[in-house]
Amino acid sequence: MKITAIYGSPRRNGNTARLLQSAVAGARSVGADVTEIVLRDLKLQPCLEIYACQKDGRCAIKDDFHGLAERLLSAQATILASPIFFYAVSAHVKAMMDRCQSLWVKKYRLEKKSYTRLDNHKPGLFLTVGATHGRRLFEGAEMSVKYFFDTFDTSLWRTLAYRGLDGADDILKHPECLAEARQAGVELVEMGQFNR
Ligand SMILES: Cc1cc2nc3c(=O)[nH]c(=O)nc-3n(C[C@H](O)[C@H](O)[C@H](O)COP(=O)(O)O)c2cc1C
Questions:
Q1: 86 within ligand 1 shell (Cβ under 6 A)
Q2: Reported pTM
Q3: Which residue puts its alpha carbon closest to atom 31 of ligand 1?
Q4: Per mean pLDDT, which of 78-92, 113-127, 182-196 is the most reliable?
Q5: Nearest to 107 by CA among 140, 73, 133, 155
Q6: Measuring from atom 4 of ligand 1, which residue has the nearest CA?
Q7: Which class does domain 2-195 fall in?
Q8: With CB atoms counted within 10 Å of each terminal CB, which end of the chain scores lower, N or C?
Q9: Ligand 1 atom closest to Cα of 134?
Q10: What is the pLDDT of residue 189?
Q11: Which residues contact 111 (CB under 8 A, 6 or more apart)?
């Protein structure tokens, strides 16, 4: 099973990165073929809203988005990790999401699929961390992820969200969270196999 794992934090070894490393280890332990993508290492411009994609669903900006889009479309499951920045995903993740407007245009405008029901079969896992304890801390990010996943036929299967973690190593004081992420990686593979 092919899985794409996306590191969305600017911190290479911060809290969400370590959660994602655990989920990747879990998925690999049950045989998944995981490709890891570190967004901060890609050349990825924000969307310019020129809608060149309305011609054929391809984004006109020439950068690393095209390889990334192929990965998203061809994977059988996706894991995305992002810290909460101002009650949203990181800027790196948001740039990727906005570029996926080209996939949205292809799916809903050019191929005219109905978006009244999201009934995708590929599972997606979202891992996120915030420093504070607000009740609604993850709502904005989770909604963005749900609709981002849909552009490549993926459903938000599970979110693991942890509050009160700020320092880069804070997650290490919570091995139970890392274990939960690892287990989610295992179950994601099982979900994907079940749905095929
Ligand atoms: C630009 C920026 C904005 C942030 N905004 C929030 C926020 O709105 N709410 C919150 O609880 N934490 C916020 N934080 C804290 C991060 O979510 C927190 O440090 C998290 O552990 C970072 O995860 P990482 O180590 O994976 O990057 C912000 C941090 C930065 C750098």
A1: yes
A2: 0.97
A3: 85
A4: 78-92
A5: 73
A6: 85
A7: alpha beta
A8: C
A9: 11
A10: 96
A11: none
pLDDT band of 116, cuts 50, 70, 90: low
Q: Tens digit of pLDDT for each residue in 131-146?
A: 999 999 999 999 999 9
- The domain segmentation of the chain, as residue ranges, is 2-195
Task: Check pocket membership of 85 for ligand 1, CB cut-off 6 A.
Answer: yes
Among 166, 170, 171, which residue has the most ligand 1 atoms within 8 Å of its CB, making it the best to mutate?
Answer: 166
- Cβ–ligand 1 contact at 82 (below 6 Å): no
Taking the CA of residue 163 as reference, the ligand 1 atom at the shortest distance is 11
H-type alpha helices, 90-174: 91-99, 101-104, 139-150
Give the closest residue to 123 by CA, choosing from 154, 80, 81.
154
Task: Assign 69 a pLDDT band (cuts: 50, 70, 90).
Answer: very high
